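Exercise: predict the fold of this chain.
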Amino acid sequence: MKRIYPFFALLFISYFSFAQFENFDLSKYKLPEIKRHQLDFNFSYNNNNQKHYNDDTPDHSNFDLDNDLRLDYSFDRNTPRVQSNGWGSLSTTMTLDREKYEDKEKVKDDYFNFRFNAGFQKRIYPKNDDRWFLLWSPNLNVSNSLNRDQDFLDYNNNQIEKYKTRYLTFQPRLNVGGGFGRIEQTSDARRAIYIVEDLYKKDKLNRLPDEDELIVIANRVAELRNQRFFDARLRHIYEMESLDSLLNTMELVSDNDIGYFTSLNDMWSYGHESRYSGTRLQAVVVGQLDYRFVKEKTVTDDYENSSVTIEDDNTDYNENLQFGLALSSYKPIGLKWQRYLFANVNASNYFNDSNVNAWSTDFNSFSGIISYGYDWFFNTRTYASFGVNGQYSRYDYDEEETNRYDSNSFYTGISGSLNYYFSPRLRASFRINSNYNWYQNSDSSYDKQFRFGSSASLNYAIF
């Protein structure tokens, strides 16, 4: 009987120790001040050269060349007063395509593209709290492309068609608005708890950290996660050394054996979950201009060696004015559950002045979207998600246009997934998705569709 008492005492202490973590409120965690810049250069080269030999047909060869050059920039900042992120990209693409029959060219196509895109989104909380905020987000997209095609219309090269098209697109966009509330990322706090929990289960801690110490660990996790490194292996080494140094400085560990480091590495590598907290209501007004300049030239040489040239220059000018109202909400329920809710209403007015696309016309649109569900995080291996969603859309076209019809559409669906880790030998997963679509336009046509799909898998290692 005396041997049973220590067992129950240990069980009692373990239960209330873990209860201390279960009572940690993720919704109270605030991400520390973070600023991150990242600039990456990428170059890719692809070449494909093929030759075909056949006794019954002329020799045939193909040559393809694709080159891509890209420069990407990203910026993230989080402070009590500001939540912002920025992006920018500069890219060029060159594609060459050649096709020959014997030594005679049949196809000669060239494509060149230059694209620039940059913008940022910034929320400012004037009173340094989580209440009212102002939002603005400018964005600029510029694209310039040239496409040259040369086709030989018969085997003897008697007729050649040359086609050249240049597109220049200029799209400035501005979002201005504001709202109430704030959403915080709490994944780092959850990972910190995973680290401490696993070390405690394996008896690698001198004591359990209190709530303030847990927040210190979570803040260090956030800082490490946002460090900029150029080598993934060096990054991981630095992260392990930094966490180990912090835990030792806090006098939480004393025996830094291999079991301690394997636990620390496992929870750092696989203890990440997408966790958020907070509610935000946001209203924005969006203005966008879309200019497109198109220059086309077609030259055809016929059998009598005469040439026919057709040139066409067009300019498109489109305006888009939108109003949007969005509600986003995340609610942590303990450490293992998370509830989410998204609702969005958008009204748009499009003005089209198109010389290229005869089907373009002015129209108004309205849409509403809602999504609600739960995420379950049992541990780092077992998780599940279930949600419902719906969407309504309406398009109203200019009354003078006869080539488009006003329309209404409705969509609703449910989805769920489960990945369950029973043991190292037995694992299972399940997916389900069901939705209903309804579409109607002003010429009294209807389209209804119901879909249901599911999948399941079971993996058992026999030996």
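Check your answer against the key: The CA atoms of residues 421 and 427 lie 5 Å apart.
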